[in-house]
Write a structure and sequence with these properties.
39% helix; three-stranded antiparallel beta sheet; 275 residues; single chain; alpha+beta; 13 helices
Length: 275
């Protein structure tokens, strides 16, 4: 195992050594146990959740319609669902490496944490309103059989692919949010992984300098990354997590600023002045 990071300074030194190309962006993600964590969105971590993805999507909106009243696209709804901890096909990233370090140290149980560095081609970065984003996002509204039917047809030419009944249903969902959408989906987009820059629509996205990876059907990142997405891994010393958290706190990165809700601010203040 490569040498572990024991301080904020150690991670910053690593970050400063990154030399992205002009056509690349660099983003980060941190998690507390490098041996237990799989680099995949939450909806992929439980087969039953994935099987019922479309039902969970509808049930949350049905039970809390006012929370989604300002969301005009499926992506915006997925971002809000992610915010409320419903499993989705989104994976949170941040442009702030110290934010990723905070999450890598958030469970101070002695396990080795990890900061993952994503080097992403700008051609794999999309905004919230792109057509490709709409295609992949709306897979969340398709049932499992329909998604499998779409995946099975991806070896066809684009014209034949778009004549498949399940693809036509996906097109209907897309055109609900984009009436002008050209009714042609590229088969290759179905299983892509793209980086999405979303609207800064809630305080958590703003505070965490957030972006997302959006996963298509059966999409996976292996140890070397995915098309257009390279990854590097920086291990964080499990025995130094408490020390690192104190260093981050001195830089105003703590539970109160990472999760900017009044209950977290109260918790942080209570702990800070604990006798």
């Amino acid at each position: 195992m490569s040498r572990t990071i024991t301080s904020v300074e150690g991670l910053i030194r690593k970050v400063f050594k990154i030399a992205p190309q002009p056509d690349e962006v660099v983003l980060y993600r941190g998690h507390a146990d490098r041996l237990e964590y799989k680099l995949e969105p939450s909806i992929f971590r439980d087969p039953k959740h994935l099987l019922h993805e479309d039902v969970m999507f509808r049930e949350l909106i049905t039970s809390n319609p006012s929370d989604f009243s300002d969301d005009s696209s499926t992506l915006e709804k997925l971002v809000r669902m992610q915010h409320y901890s419903l499993p989705t096909r989104l994976l949170d990233l941040t442009s702030n490496p110290l934010m990723a370090l905070y999450f890598a140290c958030s469970t101070a149980n002695g396990s080795t944490g990890e900061v993952i560095i994503f080097t992403i081609k700008k051609s794999a970065v999309y905004f919230y309103d792109s057509d490709t984003t709409s295609v992949i996002s709306n897979l969340a509204r398709m049932n499992a059989t329909a998604k499998d039917g779409i995946k099975a047809a991806t070896n066809q030419q684009i014209a034949q692919f778009n004549q498949v009944d399940q693809v036509d249903r996906l097109l209907q969902f897309i055109r609900e949010e984009k009436p002008y959408f050209c009714p042609l989906i590229k088969p290759s987009d179905i299983s892509r992984i793209i980086c999405v820059k979303t609207k800064m629509s809630n305080s958590r996205i703003v505070s965490q300098a957030g972006s997302f990876l959006l996963f298509g059907h059966d999409a996976k990142i292996d140890k070397n990354g995915a098309p257009g997405i390279g990854i590097g891994r920086v291990p964080i010393n499990g025995n130094q997590k408490v020390k690192i958290l104190k260093e981050l706190d001195s830089l105003n990165i703590n539970e109160s600023t990472v999760f900017p809700y009044i209950e977290n601010s109260a918790k942080y203040i209570r702990q800070r002045y604990k006798t």
